[in-house]
Amino acid sequence: MNTHNISLPRKLTNQLLHLAQLTPEVEICGLIAAASNGQPSRCYPILNSAPTPHNCFLLDTGQQIATMKQMREQGETLYAIYHSHPTAPAEPSPADIAQAVYPAALHLIISLNTKGVLEIRAFHIENQSVRELSLSLSEE
Questions:
Q1: Which alpha helices (DSSP H) does the chain contain, by range?
Q2: ∠ Cα 7 9 13 (to 5°)
Q3: 107: domain range?
Q4: Burial tier of 52 (Cβ tally within 10 Å: 0-12, 13-18, 19+)
Q5: Buried b (16+ CB within 10 A) or exposed e, 68-104
Q6: Which of 82, 80, 79 is CA-nearest to residue 57?
Q7: pLDDT tens digit string along 105-116?
Q8: What is the pLDDT of residues 27-68, one digit of tens each?
Q9: Number of folded domains in the chain?
């Protein structure tokens, strides 16, 4: 993914923000699938199996494998990996950078560490290098 401008459907963005608000004390996580046209289309929440889910995330291996299989069966591809930061800014932590293993996928980070406004930002992480992408909402 080499584009600098990312457009997310408003409905999908609202779903991500809502999921983060449901459990504000832990990092939520999951996958975003792209439809056959390459556009983000569906959110797949996955259990955070990290030993300390309040400050890191680890996609549950079984759910991740099942989700990837379901995406393939639906003709979808991996578009993004998302997670939240309950008490930190919406930017990749050193652990997020070190654990990024899907260079073609975006990383969407939701921050609950703002005063009254939730924040979501998009990043491309490859070979320990981080680049922020411009994020806009679409009505699709």
A1: 10-22, 61-73, 94-98
A2: 100
A3: 5-138
A4: exposed
A5: beebeeeebbbbbbbbbbbeeebebbeebbeebeeee
A6: 82
A7: 999 999 988 666
A8: 999 999 999 999 999 999 999 999 999 999 999 999 999 999
A9: 1
Q: Is 36 helix (H, G, I), strand (E, B) or coil?
A: coil
Residue with tokens 């009254």, as numbered in its chain: 116
Output the pTM of the full model.
Answer: 0.93
CA distance 84 to 57: 9
Instruction: Using DSSP, state whether 34 is helix, strand or coil.
Output: strand
CATH number at residue 128: 3.40.140.10
Which of 119, 122, 47 lies closest to 85 in space, CA to CA? 119
What pLDDT sits at residue 3? 47
- Calpha distance 62→41 (Å, rounded): 22
Tokens of 95: 């652990």
Q: Is the pLDDT of residue 86 over 80?
A: yes
Looking up tokens 């050193």 gives 94
